[in-house]
Design goal:
This protein has 668 residues and is α/β, with parallel strands linked by helices. The protein contains 25 helices and 19 strands.
Length: 668
Amino acid sequence: MNSLWDPAQAAAINDDALAMRVYSSRLLGQNEDLVMHGGGNTSVKALGRDFFGDEVDILYVKGSGWDLKTIEKPGFSPLRLRETQRLAKLKTLSDDDMARQLRAFLLDPRAPSPSVEAILHAVVPFKFVDHTHTDAVVTLTNNPNGQSIIAELFPDCLILPYVMPGFILAKQVADAIAKHDLIQFKGIILMHHGVFTYANDAQATYENMIELVNRADQYIATHGVTNHPTRSAEVDLLRLAHIRQAVCRCRGRAQIAMLDASGAAAGFASLTNVASLATRGPITPDHVIRAKRTACIIDSKTPENRAIDTTVPEVARFANDYRSYFQRNTNGNLTMLDSAPRWAVWKNVGTIALGSTLKDCRIITDLNRHTAAAIQTGESLGGWEALPEKDIFDLEYWVLEQNKLAASGPVKTHQGKIAIVTGAASGIGRATAIELHAQGAVVVGLDTNAAVESVLAADGLIGRICDLTDADAVKEQTENTVTQFGGIDILVLNAGVFQTGQTIEEASTTKDDSAIWAQTLAVNLTASQKVLSHAIPYLKRGWEASVIIVGSRNALAPGAGASAYSVSKAGVTQLARVAALELAADGVRVNVVHPDAVFDTGIWTDEALRASAERYNMTVEDYKTKNLLGCNIRAKDVAAMIATVAGPVFSATTGAQIPIDGGNERVI
């Protein structure tokens, strides 16, 4: 590991201690072998002024919710140093009191809550303090002979046994400082936890960290194996969707299942003793908040009984084991968290990250990769031995960590769901994709228009080019969605074309006229049937699965000169009714929304609008407001209805046809 310190950048910071703290913190944060996803913490002590202008000693310590990789000045909580140091002199301090007092010591009440290690940072008598959970050092401490290895490797460091973070750890370090002058050490090694380095200079603090980690890396390279097995894997997508469904059922809400079938993940999952390795505990206890204590082990063999309503016994077994783990360790005053796994090892296939958001799943995937590598390396060094489960349990149920989870806010209506929307490049389809995404779903929008890739280009809002009349293309995009996210819960069939002004007689007059009829039915009806047929196996294994077909007022009250469009929309409505009958037993709801007079869509070209108005002997403006309510119906209004129909409000509704037309006399 090389030092990334840039003397020119550092020199440009001048004497701004907090800016220097930001700079060196980011150097640590950009290396995942040192710091992962909000882990680690840093601080600097400096003189400042309070609200009254009085000079005060300030501890700027990383605030909760910030990541060292991207931290800015506002990410550091400014604490009154002297008062924070006094907390370490108390004999006892509850977690609630510690959190309350630390917030009381903030010079800015709008600042983030200080790191739980704030008191420790305060008592270390140096200006800069760095703390990481570096993989290399933690791998060595999670070894049956870890104490002797660490003592031999780090004779110039203070080595302390694992204790609970927060006040207990701060007290341990304060007591050690009272007995030892820290100037004689390069850092502090916390068994099963990580490394602290310190100095009055940011560069020295940072480079001491790099030097200590390099020692561990070099020891591992000399005595262990770091090149681990890799292999390719075949993925049974129906099995993946079924596993996801079981996890959703266990947690009681939708979860994304992010499969990692990379060579490294598949190699780890193929180890003969992987069930033992992946259930010993995390490489560092703070990972338990994200990934729980152990993985769920999934058999690679596809069960002979692939019925939709069967359970996945491995997930049920994990839940039972988690309940037993809770009962063994609770003090009787705790409320058990959900028993669903956060990651799984799918034997011979790879690992699966399970979470409510893409961010959660990406974090868990990264933790899994580091965990798998560290475990295999640890085994090559003589064994992998995590902390006892009681220590891990205490951190998982630590009130301060639970407060972080509670601060994440309420769950959105479609959080964790996976949706496909057709005709998503514009109009109702685009608005629906955006609305479902805003309500928490991961959305894949399909369209022949290449613009779909740019108009749906947010995290979890993906546009893909697809000719829906091409069965192979539809199958490919359906499987891509399941491979990437684990299943399908919501299918919105919206793609359509509309050409008006052609009578039935004219439809067979010329080759071009016949093509209009064929194309309209191919896109509006047959393509919907193709998409639905490919999605059904996954919808059956979805969570609160729902199909919404975008029909039209024309299905109920057709107009002259629009035979192809009216027939196709009547046909797709009938398709929905049949699907509702066929899929109800599997819990899949199928409903139709019938919009009308939605003029901010791609279907309504100026030419089509003029032609329709002329048929009613109206001006274009009068035609736009001819519904009973005289209201202007927009694509986003239809999208809001579709999102609602897909949600819990309509959980007992299937086979329905819902108008959103402002009231149409002919329909009524």
